[in-house]
Specification:
This protein has one domain: SGNH hydrolase (Rossmann fold, 3-Layer(aba) Sandwich). It has about 375 residues and is α/β, with parallel strands linked by helices. It has a 6-stranded parallel sheet with strand order 2-3-1-4-5-6. Strand 2, helix 3 and strand 3 form a beta-alpha-beta unit. About 40% of the residues lie in helices and about 5% in strands. The chain is built from 12 helices and 6 strands. Bound molecules: 2-acetamido-2-deoxy-beta-D-glucopyranose (3 copies). The site of one 2-acetamido-2-deoxy-beta-D-glucopyranose has 5 residues, from helix 8.
């Protein structure tokens, strides 16, 4: 990874100092942004998949999803808040409207979340050409199209360049993790990592297109999050077990080769981000790390206040080290939640608990 550009480093230091001054109150004195525009999949979705016809009525819309924070299913794939929610709270931003829940400029003025649970980075035709079946007809390119539609609504006619620059300068762009579904489908299709690995340049390529689109529209501050440790997912640990000794990482118990796919993705993503920083020095591009915080808690759960079975889903059933079985999927009638989700990393075998999301967000906010 190339070093940060001087400009970005200066911006980071400035923010770090501002954050330091407020450390006691944990809130930032000055709101630096008016709104957030966010993109991604179920790790970032705050209500779209509950509305999208292809996914409406899915498990996330049932209890016990949302039990910890919202006290009701909120359309989020967690027991409580997502990483995006913690960022929005800490920066004192208004909660963005899920794109599918709004239609007017007024609905969208305070920010929009385009993330959809089950979304893939790559489009369905491309995945099909690789023999991979996806289920949710939303790709990163759809979210970019939606963003451009919203921008037109907010600007109203006639187009006003100055107004656009003003809106964009006061907007934070949060590109949540995208691509996990592509990799997960590939691994479940094939079982070996070759197919998943072959997707890396394509997925990083479509993320690059989405970032360039936002930069071209005038985005000044972006957070681009990387890939989660795929090999630590209880669902994949259950579905793709193996007897071979080196299959599992000693420290974490995660599947080594799957985590290497995530690391490859993150290396390629960071390489691309460095190029974008050089080409667009007026835009601050922050990398949001989802990989190391999760591996850190899974490797030493006790040290960070988590319980002794960090690879087990809190909500679900089936027992064993992963407590994952589709028959007992969280939000379905046979599922049960653990008594204390704040001690679990995985909420439902695929998505993180609020406790894990808070831990991840804390690391991300240090650099924002
Ligand atoms: C996503 O974009 C494709 C074209 O690339 C389109 O066919 C599809 O309808 C879009 N999906 C949604 C939900 O708008
Ligand atoms: C998995 O993909 C590799 C190429 O990436 C291919 O050689 C192999 O046949 C595939 N295996 C299955 C079971 O589809
Ligand atoms: C999941 O649970 C069902 C019902 O108890 C059981 O028949 C099935 O074997 C389980 N699957 C796995 C992979 O353990």
């Amino acid at each position: 990874m190339a070093p940060f550009s001087g400009l970005l480093l200066a911006a980071l230091l400035l923010v770090a100092v501002t954050g330091e001054a407020d450390a006691g109150g944990t809130k930032y004195r000055l709101a630096r942004y008016d709104r957030v525009f966010s993109f991604g999949d179920s790790l970032t979705d705050t209500g779209n998949s509950a509305i999208l016809p292809a996914t409406a009525g899915g498990p996330f819309t049932n209890a016990p999803y949302g039990q910890t924070h919202f006290k009701r299913p909120s359309g989020r794939a967690s027991d409580g808040r997502l990483v995006l929610d913690f960022i929005v709270e800490s920066l004192r931003l208004p909660q963005p409207t899920p794109y599918l829940a709004g239609s007017t400029a007024e609905d969208f003025r305070q920010g929009v979340n385009f993330a959809v649970g089950g979304a893939t980075a790559l489009d369905m035709a491309f995945l099909q050409s690789k023999g991979i079946t996806s289920f949710v007809p939303v790709f990163l390119s759809n979210q970019t199209t939606w963003f451009n539609d919203v921008l037109h609504l907010l600007l109203a006619s006639p187009r006003n360049g100055q107004r656009q620059r003003k809106i964009m300068a006061r907007s934070l762009f949060y590109f949540g993790e995208i691509g996990f579904n592509d990799y997960s489908f590939a691994l479940k299709t094939n079982g070996t990592v070759g197919l998943a690995e072959s997707l890396v340049p394509h997925i990083v390529g479509v993320i690059r297109s989405a970032l360039i689109d936002a930069i071209a529209a005038g985005a000044r501050t972006m957070v681009v999050t990387g890939m989660i440790p795929i090999g630590c997912e209880p669902e994949l640990l259950t579905m793709l077990p193996s007897g071979a000794g080196s299959y599992y990482d000693k420290a974490s118990g995660c599947i080594t080769r799957f985590n290497q796919v995530a690391q490859l993705h993150n290396r390629e993503l960071n390489r691309m981000l460095c190029e974008l920083r050089r080409a667009h020095p007026r835009t601050s591009i922050h990398y949001g790390d989802l990989y190391h915080p999760v591996v850190t808690i899974i490797s030493s759960p006790g040290k960070y206040g988590f319980g002794g079975m960090p690879l087990a889903a809190c909500c679900g059933g089936g027992g064993g080290p992963y407590n994952f079985n589709f028959t007992f999927f969280c939000g379905t009638p046979l599922a049960r939640a653990c008594t204390d989700p704040s001690r679990s990393v995985s909420w439902d075998g695929i998505h993180y608990t609020e406790a894990a999301n808070r831990f991840i967000a804390r690391g991300m906010l240090r650099g924002l």
